[in-house]
Amino acid sequence: MDNLIPVTQPYMPPLEEFVPYLEAIWDSKTVTNGGRFHAQLERELCAYLGVEFLSLFSNGTLALITALQAMKITGEVITTPFSFVATTHALHWNGIRPVFVDIDPVTMNIDAKKIEAAITPQTTAILPVHVYGSPCEVEEIERIADTYGLRVLYDAAHAFGVRKNARSVLEFGDMSVLSFHGTKVFNTFEGGAIICRDAKTKRRVDQLKNFGFVDEVTVVAPGINGKMNEVQAAFGLLQLQHMEKIHTERARVDERYRAALGNVGGLRLPVTPDGCTRNHSYFPVRITRDFPITRDALYERLRAHNIAARRYFYPLISEFPTYRGLPSATRSNLPVASEISQQVLCLPIYPALTPNVQDRIIDIILAAAGLQQYAS
């Protein structure tokens, strides 16, 4: 359907702004392997995000897989079932056993109070996710990790530019991984990055993403091909120039939803934890039992009007065949995550979403609630 309204879409700057980058790549004959734009984007992202060491990747999944390799994680890793499957797939590809714990009923992040009970002699790390860009309980997770000698790798795929108590959330843990997929606030078509703490670790990461090469004739590890190419990097540089507009427009959509839906019975809107910023990467609403129709019925009603709202994350990772046989994957172990996965619905949010189209979305929801249409 050509007029389908997606949950999100990339911000596309004017094409004429991208042409000079493409011409420079064409003239240089350097299209990959750490070219000029790749190096420049790493520098500019470090400055923008307030971090010191960042390594670009061709996508966020390869970045997660490589981060686990660089940290030499083995055994069991405690993580959340409420995420995109790439989070747990990265563990699986490294031969690591995921151990699921339940999520917080407000933030929908991993419930830090549940982590300690899941630690066993085989536990080596914690892999939390900043779900929808809302920061985890990073201080409590850090305390637990220090107490039990565990490593912490944050899946920060949604958390570009997010801060907690004036600190970048990317500064917490041993490493953080970003996604620059086309659905994200900042994108390079496909792409991702690892944020680490020191130059030695960055060198290790950079070697692993390039087959383990140190120089032309020396390979020190069984690395992978995770390099970002010059076209992706160039698009990222152009995106950075428009980040203020991107954030402003996403905030506009967020505020409009809150104004229209904030008092609708049976709907729960996203909450920003105290001291945290939100990058408006998603707008998840929860359709509770008090709403006149079910989440799935509302989903189908929106789809019938070409609105591609997404049940994100449903099903839980723990419910997929690859993982549902794990002892920690039982619904009795994950009651909050199980309930929320049946309630959550992400509404469209992106810079190009016009007020008129957003009003259509809002009016469908208000009609389902038996309320009058939204007064624009």
From TrEMBL:
Any GO molecular function: transaminase activity
GO biological process: polysaccharide biosynthetic process
Transferase as UniProt keyword: yes
Record key words, sorted: Aminotransferase, Pyridoxal phosphate, Transferase
Catalytic-site annotation from UniProt: 184 (proton acceptor)
CDD domains for the chain: AHBA_syn
Protein's UniProt keywords contain Transferase: yes
Modified residues (N6-(pyridoxal phosphate)lysine): 184
PANTHER family to which the protein is assigned, alphabetical: PROTEIN RV3402C, TRANSAMINASE
Family classification: Belongs to the DegT/DnrJ/EryC1 family.
Protein name: Aminotransferase
Organism: Trinickia soli
